[in-house]
Amino acid sequence: MSHDHKHSHHHHHPSIDDTSIVKLWISIFLNLAITLAEFIGGILSNSLALLSDAVHNLNDTLSLVISLVARKISKKGVNTEKTFGYKRAEIIGAFINLITLVIVALFLIKEGVERFFDPQSIDGFTMFWVAIVGLFGNFITAWMLWKESKDNLNMRSAFIHILSDGLSSVGVIIGGWLILKYEWYIVDTILTVGIGVYILWHSYHMLRETINILMESKPEEIALSELEEVMESVDEVCGVHHLHVWRLDETQILLECHVVIKKEDLHAMEEVKQNIKKLLHDQFEITHSTLEFEFEPCSAKDHELIHHHEHDHAH
Questions:
Q1: Percent over 90 (pLDDT), the chain
Q2: Given a cut of 90, is residue 173 above it in pLDDT?
Q3: How far is Cα 269 from Cα 35, in angstroms, rounded to an integer?
Q4: Cα 102 from chain centroid?
Q5: What is the rounded distance in angstroms from the CA atom of residue 211 to the CA atom of residue 191?
Q6: CB–CB of 172/47 below 8 Å?
Q7: Distance between CA 204 and CA 206 in Å, rounded?
Q8: How far is CA 86 from CA 69, 71, 252, 310, in A?
Q9: pLDDT tier, 260 (very low <50, low <70, confident <90, very high otherwise)
Q10: Which residues of 275-311 are buried (b: 16+ CB within 10 A; e: fewer)?
């Protein structure tokens, strides 16, 4: 068992993880600076768009803090209390971030609709330039987090926060320009609602993935029937049951099940176990599997009885 754990730890290069923590720190400070600039700009220009962008940015800063804390916790090793380690901390971090994203999106849509019915006179000039500063900061942050966001839900939830903020900055810039030029206040509404819908759409898919991992659901790409078939194709295996497959985090898939072999094949048990584990690893990327062996008669009829008995036992 310890071999498997060591094996999985070697996949993550510590240098990369350390840089991601540094990147998160820089991103947090950058975002705090933007938030401050936008709050001041929003008050000076009477731009609700800029103020809501500042609130959105503050929320992003918090999401980056959550991602950072989760990232640091997930680095802690296995101990007697947390026998699986702290890997799921990042999934919980992503979950919290995604919930706040949904709230932000709904808030943006509400603001946009209200603005439509109550247009305000806005200082487009200040709104325009402050939003450009904001966009620049978001762009740097997004660029820093982009690489890590590709294969880590926690980093991706922070990245989507920043990306959505960059988008709303673009919205504020376009809005500011059109207000300066033509006094088209409707643009503000359309952009705000559009950004809200975009965030909701992204959050929904990531939230589903996060909840599936927390609920220990079977990974979507694995079909149980196919898994059984592959395991039963190994020589000497009569059948498998009590099959459980789940994810520890995005990278690690775990499995446990009962494997039935004949009593006379007892001497081959270790070999059978290694063959099954190799197949599971190579075909399904299952990094850790726990197999319990049982000796039963291998005729189909008896096998049916075993299943029946188990079913009754479960009830």
A1: 23
A2: no
A3: 62
A4: 14
A5: 30
A6: yes
A7: 6
A8: 12, 10, 13, 34
A9: very high
A10: bbbebbbeebebbbbebeeeebebeeeebeebeeeee
Is there a contact between 104 and 199 (Cβ–Cβ < 8 Å)?
yes
| Rounded Cα gap, residues 32 and 63, in angstroms | 12
We find that the CATH architecture of domain 224-314 is 2-Layer Sandwich (3.30)
Q: Tokens for 274, please give them.
A: 């290694």
| Residue with the larger pLDDT of the pair 276 and 157 | 276
Burial of 146 (0-12, 13-18, 19+ CB in 10 A): middle
- Across the range 53-57, mean pLDDT stands at 78
Other Cβ atoms closer than 10 A to 208: 13
- CATH 1.20.1510.10 positions along the chain are 2-214
Asked if 97 contacts 67 with a C-beta cutoff of 8 angstroms, the reply is yes
Q: How far is CA 109 from the centre of its chain?
A: 24
Predicted TM-score (pTM) of the model is 0.72
Asked whether residue 250 carries a pLDDT value surpassing 90, the answer given is no
Q: Where in the chain is the domain with CATH 3.30.70.1350?
A: 224-314
The pLDDT confidence band at residue 298, using thresholds 50, 70 and 90, is low
CB 288 within 8 A of CB 11: no
pLDDT in tens, 199-234: 888 889 889 989 999 999 999 899 999 999 999 999
DSSP string for residues in 189-256 = HHHHHHHHHHHHHHHHHHHHHHHHHHTTPPPTT--HHHHHHHHHTSTTEEEEEEEEEEESSSS-EEEE
The CATH fold of domain 2-214? Alpha-lytic protease prodomain-like (1.20.1510)
Span 183-208, average pLDDT: 80
Q: Which residues contact 75 (CB under 8 A, 6 or more apart)?
A: 17, 86
